[in-house]
Give the backbone structure.
Amino acid sequence: MMEKCLIAAVADDGALGKDNELLWHLSEDLKYFKRLTSGHPVIMGRKTFESLGRPLPKRLNIVLSRRPAAVPPEPSRPLLTAATLDEAFALAAATPFEGRIDEPDRCFIMGGGSIYAQALDACDKLFLTQVHTTCPSADTFFPDFDKGRWRELSRSETFSEEGLTYEFVVYGR
């Protein structure tokens, strides 16, 4: 059974982004994201894919879109489209790709806000970078979730970068 994980960097007020862009670029957070997701399928919405500009290397990229034909094909890297979250999970579980890590078998939901909201109840783990700031101008937010239904599995030391402090927190069911 594939472990379904959600990965996000979230401000204290739940902010994720503005104008289809991240609110910050934290070096340690980007390294953490790459280390966790490399070798695994990643599932994202069309707008998140467009903001990246290309599929992420060493991962099976699955773009969730109501109009899969709107996502251009990418011949050089694994890129699939799915119309529903269940279809995306099925593709993640069944599609081989170069560099795939099968133990443990997991996939990562990596945004945006509406995809997180759709996927939250289906997920087994949350990998959250908790950024200790607020962003009143943000236009994309992480969904509220009942922390009583999750248990904190780990919390990193506090990092400081670009005038921000943050921690890596993992929640499980």
User: Anything to note?
Assistant: The mean pLDDT is 92. The domain at 3-172 is CATH 3.40.430.10 (Dihydrofolate Reductase, subunit A). The helical segments are 27-37, 46-52, 85-94, 113-119. The chain has four helices and twelve strands.
